[in-house]
Structures are given as C-alpha cells and as structure tokens.
Amino acid sequence: MTDTAREDALKPEVVRQMRRDARKRYFQDSYTLWKRNPITMIGTITIALLILIAFIAPLLATHDPYEQILADRLFAPSAEHWFGTDNLGRDIYSRVVHGSRLTLMIAILVAVISGPIGLVVGVLSGYLGGWVDEVLMRISDVFLAFPKLILAVAFAAALGTGLENAIIAISVANWPGYARMVRAETLAVRNSDYIQAIRVLGAGRLRIMVGHITPMCMSTLIVRVSFDMGAIILIAAGLGFLGLGAQPPSPEWGLMVSDGRDYLVDQWWVSTLPGLAILIVVLGFNLIGDGIRDILDPHQRQS
Amino acid sequence: MGNYILKRLVSLCITVAGIAIVTFFLSLIVPIDPLAAIAGPQADPETVERLRAVYGFDQPLHVQFFRYVERLAHFDLGMSFQTGRPVLDDIIYFFPATFELASIAMIIAIVFGIPLGVISAVKRNSFLDQAARVISLIGVSMPVFWLGLVLLLIFYFKLSWLPEPGRLDIMLIEPPRITGMLLIDSIIAGDWEVFQDALMHSIMPATVLGLFGLAGIARIARSSMLDVLSQEYVKTARIKGLSEFWVIVRHAFPNALVPTVTMIGLTYGGLLEGAVLTETIFSWPGLGRYLTVAFLTLDLNAIVGGTMLVAISYSLVNLLVDLLYAYLNPKITLAKGEG
Amino acid sequence: MTVGADKNNLLEVEDLAVRFYTLRGTVHALEDVSFKLGQGESVGLVGETGCGKSLTARAILRIVSPPGKIIRGNIRFEDKQLLELSEREIRQIRGNQISMIMQEPKMSLNPSMRVGKQVAETLMIHDKSLGKRGAYAQAVDMLNAVSIPDPKHMAKRYPHELSGGMAQRIMIAMMLVTRPKLLIADEPTSALDVTIQAQIIDLINNLIDDIGSSVLMISHDLGVVAETCDRVIVMYAGSVAESGLVRDVMENPQHPYTQGLLRTLPDAIDPGQPLYSIKGTVPNLMDEPLGCRFAPRCPQATDRCSSQKPPVYDVGPGHQVACFLHEATSPVAGTSVGVQL
Fold first, then answer.
1. Closest in B15, B29, B226 to A159, CB measured
2. Is the CB of B337 inside 8 Å of chain C's CB atoms?
3. Is residue A36's pLDDT more than 80?
4. What residue ranges in chain C does DSSP mark as E strands?
C-alpha cells in the first residue's frame, strides 16, 4: 500500500496539482497579508485614485490648464480657484489634475523602456555567461557607478531639455539595476532541473531564453519596477524643477514648483501645492512597495 | 583578502575607463559646438577652423578619444566657461562645502535613522513600528526641492528662526581658508561668531539632506535587526537570564551594525545626488550647485569633468564600503555558514 | 485537578498546551503535556523532529516567541509556579537555576563577542557582587573544567575561530558555570561530528554529577537516551505517548508508536534486516486534536481512537501509557497525563 502511495506521489499530474495548490496558498496568504496591512491599503487606494484622476482629468478640471488670464494672477485658493492661480493667472488645481497624466506617463514610459532593456541584458548575460556576461556586466557596472540623478541630469542636459529626453535620460540611469537583478534570477533558474530537462529535450538557447527563462524572471522584475516607481517620479520632478525636464507651459509638477519659487513668500500655494501632489503620489507608490516587500518576506508569513 | 582587494582594484580600473567612455560620449551629444564656446560669438570662420585643428576636433573620433584620455591622465579637465578657471580647481574649491553639508546630514540621518530602525524591529508590527516606517517612507517620498522650499517658507520667511539661504551672513568675514569647511576653519581661527552663524545656516539644508538619507538607514537597521533577532544566539542570551533591553543592546545590536555601516557608506554616495537639488535651493556654494549651473548653461567641460569625478568618487566610496564589509564580516559569515 | 505534589520532584509539568497563531490558522503544537522530573534524575525526551520536544523545553523557560503562545498548563519548579512568575522573577531562574544547551553551538554563540566574556556574562547576570574580574576568572576556570586546552588564551577567541566541538564546550561552560539545578540539553550532539559526540555526552554527564544537577535530555536518538538517562518520555505530535524507566520502555514498549520507533533502530543482532519505517506521515497539527494523534498511523487503531482521547494507564511501576489498548488490563494513572477534568 505504501508503495502505491509513493508511486502516486511521483506522478506528474499529482506533482502539478501540489504545485498549483502551493501557489494558490501563496496567493491567498499574500492577499491576507495585504488586507492586514493598512499601510499597503492606503498606498493602493492612493495610486488607484491617481490612475482614475489621470483618466478623467478633463472632467475633474474646473478650468483650462493652459489658459492665461493675467487679470486673475496669483489669486489665493478660493471657491472659484481651489488651489489658487499662478503668476500667469492659470488655475493651479486644473493644472495639478492634468499634471497627473504627465506623472503617470513618465513613470509608465520609463518602466516600459528600462524594464525590457534590463530584462534582455540580464537574461543574455545570465544564460549565455562567458564573455557576453563579462562585457554586459562591465557596461552596467559603469552605469551603476554614476549616482542615478546625476546621470539622468547629465543626459537630460546633453540630449536637450524636454519631457521625451528626460524620460530617455531616466531610463538610461535606470536599466542597469534591472539587468543585474534579472541576471541573478537567470543564474538561479538556469541550472534548475526544469531547464535542464528542457535542454535535454533539445530546445534551442533562444527558445529556452525567450520561452522559459524570461517568463520566470518577469514577476521579480515587475515587483522591482513597482518599488522604483516613486524614485522615478522624484527624479522626473527633480529634472522638471531644474528646468531640464518638461518645459513650460506644461503642467508638470516639478516645473510648477520651480515656477512658484519667486512667489513663495506671499503666494505660498503656487509652489507648495503641486509639490504636495508629488509627495502624495510618490508616498503612495512607496507604501505599496514597502507592503510588497513585507508580503514577500518569508519571516512575515509565519505569523 | 589581498587577492580580493587586487580583484576589486582591477575592476575599479575598468569601471573608471568605462566612466571615461560614457563622459566622452556625453560630450559628443551635448547640443552645442564647443568651438563656438571657446572662440566666442564674434570669432570669424577662419579662426574657428584654426581652433578646430588646435583642439583636434578635425581628427577622427578615436583620435579625439585618445587625446581626451591623455588629458585626463594629466588631470586636465579643461576650462570652465562659467568661472574661467580649470574645472579641476573649481571642483577642489567647491567640494569641501558639499562634504561639510553631507557630513552634518549624515550625522542627522544616523542619529535618527538607527534608533528608528531598531525600535521598529524590536516592536515589530506594533503601532510604533508602523509609525516609524511611515515616517521614514515620507522621508524618501518627499521631493528634496519641495521640502527645502517649505522649510524656508516656514522657518525663514514666516518665523525667522533660521537664517536665509547661503552659507554665511554677508556681514561676516570668512575665516582664512584651510580646509574649506567653514565650521572647521572657524574653529581653527577661533571665530565663534562665524562658527555659530555657519552652523545656523547649515541646519535647514542639512536637515533636508539628512532626511533624504535617513529612510535608507532606518530601513536597513530594521531589517538587519529583524534578521539578528531571529538568530539562535539571541535566544541563548535570553536563556542566560538577560533582560530584553540588554539582549538587544549587547547581543543583537552589535551584530546588526555591520550591514548598517555598509548602508551608511552607500548613503554618502546618495547624498551627492541630494546635494544637487538641496544646494540649488539653499544657494549653498558647493559642488552640487556648481554642477547644476554647469548643466543649465551647458558648460561642457564642467559637465563632463564634474560628472566624471562624482562617478569616480562614488565608485571609490563603494569600493571602500565593500572592503570594510569584507573586513568586518568574515567572522559573521563563517559563523553562519558552518553552523 | 490531580496534584501529586511530590516534594522529591524538581520539576512538574502539567497539562501544558502551546499554540501558534499563524496566517493559515492555529497550530496545536503541544496538547496536554505532563511529566515530572525528580531531584538528581536524568530524563530523556524523545520523539521525531517536530513532535514538540524543543518547544516543551522553551515553554519551561518561557521563551516561546510569537506567534507561539503558552495557553494552558502548570509548570512547577521547586516551590515556584513558573508560568505565574513575573518577567523579572523568571529571568532570575533562567541561566541560574535552569539552563539550556542548544543544538547548534556555533550559531548559538554571539559572533561578535569573545567567548570568555560570554561565559562570564552568565555569572555576572546572576551574581552582581562578583564584578567583572571575578566573573572572568571563574569563567576561565570553567573553560578548564570543560577540558578546553589553554583556557586563558581560548577565552579571547571569537566563536568563528572554534570548531563545533569546542563551541559546544563553551556553550556547556556558559550554561553550567552558575551550577543550575536543572540542565536542559536540546540535542546537544546532533550538529557535531560523530567522533566527538560521545566526548560531549561524557562531559555533560561528568559535570552534572559534580554539580548535582538534574537533566532533561532532548534527543531523537534513542541510543543516546538509553546510555545516559534514568527515565524516558516518548512524545508524539505534541503529546506524551509513553513514559517510564529506560529499561522498561526499551525492553517492553507498550504504546504502538514506541514499538514502531524501536523497530526503526538498526537491528544489532541481524544487521541484514531492511530498516523498518512507520507508515504514514505525522498529522497536521492545524486540525483540532480529537482522539489519539497516532491513530491514523497506528496498526492497532480502532474507531474510538480517532474520536476519543485515550487516558493514561499505569502499566507497571512508573511506567505509563496513553493508549486504549491497556484499558482492560491497567488502572487509569493517578497523576493525569492528558486527562481533562
């Protein structure tokens, strides 16, 4: 009887079922942990709101974000202008609402550009090894040698100001971290029984890398990118503030903070309110990131 | 150990070479003609051509690159357009102010960050832990430039508790420059008025920069404390009859310190980034502001030289941190590995 | 409640229950664990990994860490109820009257503190009058007592500079330097090389004799227990299955689990025999404990075994078994082992 039980335990469909159950339990636990942690909940709600606001920005805005009414310049917050007006008489609330689109776009584009670059470099480097690995990792080391913001600022300055260049510049500074991480992940799965078996079955390198290794690295990469969202937005806002990112009259939040600097003393709202928007969104992303870190922490699962 | 150091030094050399390539590339894509900048706007085309030959811009790219490397080997980073002085002299001149600011910021980050992290770990998942984590998360989420403006608005413009941006009151005379760090130079000169004023001026920028570094330190202190608290030797300490306080102070904390020290090293590098924005807001005459101005005015040599030196010093800091870690760590990794 | 408060007993554990409150539910890690330990006696606590041996030891010292919680029971040590003491009072007992040697000596020493200082620390906690010097001198003497060569010099070493055997000697010195009345040894040799296991066991036994301590020896190795202990307690899945004099239990096991366990030992007479293994797996402690925990694996189980908890029967002098098989022939034990009143 024990023997048949043992044979049963080794059947592929049984193993697969066990794996499926384990994964299901893992997700259930993750969900429980997520629910239990109010911090993560607040973060999730904040970012859900950001996405919603970005989608329906034209409906939420009370004014045209670009319309300059010089007679209305530097009005304090009121029922008409909720966040007041800036030095060109534009409604700050409407500009902040429209700015959410830019912020979200920057974050997504940087992720979409630097994520795949890091993925390709990391998988190639980790799977092929040898000189390919050596060369690719040396290159990413060089990029990692620069502080991120400084590299982004340098490239933004060199490429010329503008939102698109800022996005490219941030991506340039961002990909090496992903490449390193994906490489480590690839090394870990490369020698697994699973990949060995596929290799024995005669699958080619390309097929293994694209079809099997890449999907296995995706979840870690996505988690990592979601940690970085806050930092990406901060760097973009910093570029905007320095005048190296988005250009006037764009309602980019960092740029708006910079615009209001001259009026800080008497018209505090011009500068501080867009900055507050940056803080809230970045905090939202970081709260989620911190929560994910916790959910993935094996220590936490025990309690 | 010796082998390890050698290996790291070799890879540092490769990295520095890479940094040179990246900065050279940077100089190629800057959308200004360096010659026009050297020759000035009134120069006639003939002069420009002559200069092109003099500076070697008519040569193929790889020749230009080797010339660039050759100049670097002689520590020649070229002249800055904005100051009219050699870039290297500028950097040496502006660096101490940044170093001073970053050091005060570091002290703030350590003094608040480590206890915050330790308390978080010890009172794990309690309200205190959550509060400490939210505080440090707010720290990393705060746009540095915005926090600077808000602090200026409140403490300078509205309350007048702290002085205006800058490093020293304009009515005061700087003490003789010895280290370039005002606080130290004023002590050497025995000028307490300057010392006090410089200290007051540094409070706001250092707080802003310190908060930037605090979160990372608190996080690493928390996670390494959590790691240590789950170790067997902490249990041993409890079995001996030690109170929880002494278990933490004598047995847990010293072992959690190694990764935290590593993080402190890395944070120093991170503060260089923060300095770019902080110094801009607080008109702090340091490297960060020098670089910002260079970026905005497309001062080519200053951009290339400054970026390169920042990257090299950042790599050096990383190397030192790694060596320190390897030096401090063998006993810990061995103890873990063999048990 | 039945109380056989025998003054000769140093330690009495009664109805001890520990639960872990985890994400997926409550783990009933210990249920109704009861046993006693006489003055000067050495008792072995045996069972498979995860049966709650170590947890029992930790519960006695009250160092069960969250999410685990002691939810019920009495632990009497001399005239003190350990579970009722304040945090300060229990600390005066830990390391002083009850000490514990752990499984992984190298991981159980603080990697950043010299070993001499670690040994001296135990003394200083419990005798403030000694002073740093006095405690350190005694610690060095103690290192000598655990046969560490050149103790003065070795006291200045860090744990990573020591071998596993040396580290365990340090651990023993650290825990016996205060001459405790009870020593708990949690698998003190399982992490060590086979060649030095015997040395360490001998060392513990010799020191114990000198000091006059009692010992609770936790082990999954019946051989070690047979050699060193007077009595043995067999645990299964968080409960006590059988207890008695080593000779009685080893030669005449009464609980089907003990019988199975003994059959898993390599046969000395006929080494050619294939090793026996108990069928089935250890139950999920997440389930509410109904009946006998061993029932699903027990070759002699009846329907009743899986629904009703067996009481403890006296099957001989000091020999007790929690199994219905003895219902007809033996009286229910005077001191309860698992009887809920």
1. B29
2. no
3. no
4. 9-22, 25-38, 42-46, 68-77, 80-81, 98-101, 182-186, 214-219, 231-236, 239-245, 313-316, 319-321
Q: Are C13 and C38 in contact (CB under 8 A)?
A: no
Q: Touching check for C7 and chain A: CB below 8 Å?
A: no
pLDDT single digits (tens) C46-72: 888 778 888 888 888 888 887 888 888
The answer as to whether B81 is a domain residue is: no
Partners of C319 in the beta sheet?
Answer: C316
Q: Does A264 touch chain B (CB under 8 A)?
A: yes
Spell out the SS3 assignment of A168-206.
HHHHHHHHHHHHHHHHHHHHHHHCCHHHHHHHHCCCCHH
Inspect the interface and report whether the beta carbons of A150 and B134 lie closer than 8 Å. Answer: no
Domain that holds residue A262: 37-302
The model's pTM is: 0.79
Instruction: Please state, rounded to an integer, the average pLDDT across all residues of chain B.
Output: 84
Q: CB of A161 within 8 A of CB of A101?
A: no
- Tens digits of per-residue pLDDT, A255-264? 999 998 888 8
Among A42, A168, A265, A286, most B C-beta atoms within 10 A, so best to mutate, is: A286
Provide the domain limits for residue B20. 2-73
Residue C3 confidence (pLDDT) above 60: no
B311·A147 Cβ contact <8 A: yes
- Whether residues A279 and B142 touch (CB distance < 8 A) is answered with yes
> Is the Cβ pair C108, B235 closer than 8 Å?
yes
* CB hemisphere CA count around C237 (13 angstroms): 20
CATH number at B133 reads 1.10.3720.10
Note the pLDDT of residue A107: 93
Does residue B338 sit at the C interface (CB-CB below 8 Å)? yes
Res. B3: pLDDT tops 70: yes
Measure the N-to-C terminal CA separation of chain C; round to a whole number of Å. Answer: 7
Smallest CA–CA separation between C109 and chain B, in Å?
A: 5
CATH of the domain at A234: 1.10.3720.10
The domain total for chain B is 2
B11 to chain A, minimum CA–CA distance in Å? 8
What confidence tier does C274 reach under pLDDT thresholds 50, 70, 90? low
Distances (CA, A) of A15 to A12, A196, A212, B36, C295: 5, 18, 19, 71, 27
Residues of chain A numbered 37-56 and touching chain B (CB < 8 Å) = 38-39
Whether A215 is in a domain gets the answer yes
Could you read off the pLDDT of B245-280 as tens digits, one per residue? 999 988 999 888 888 887 777 787 778 888 889 999
What are the φ/ψ torsions at residue C2 (nearest 5 degrees)? -100, 130
Check CB contact of C274 with chain A, cutoff 8 Å: no
Name the CA dihedral angle for B259, B264, B265, B267, rounded to a multiple of 10 degrees.
120
Check CB contact of C23 with chain A, cutoff 8 Å.
yes
pLDDT of B333 above 50: no
Give the pLDDT of residue C6: 55
Of B74, B98, B101, nearest in space to B88 by CA: B74
Q: Please report whether residue B170 resides in a domain.
A: yes
Pairs across B and C, CB distance < 8 A:
90
- The residue out of B15, B38, B73 marking a domain boundary is B73
- Residue C71 distance to chain A (closest CA, Å): 17
- Closest by Cβ to B233, choosing from C93, C107, C161: C107
For residue A29, list chain C residues with Cβ-Cβ distance below 8 A.
23-24
B336, pLDDT greater than 70: no
CB contact under 8 A, A301 and C21: no
Task: Report CA torsion sign: C304, C305, C307, C311.
Answer: positive
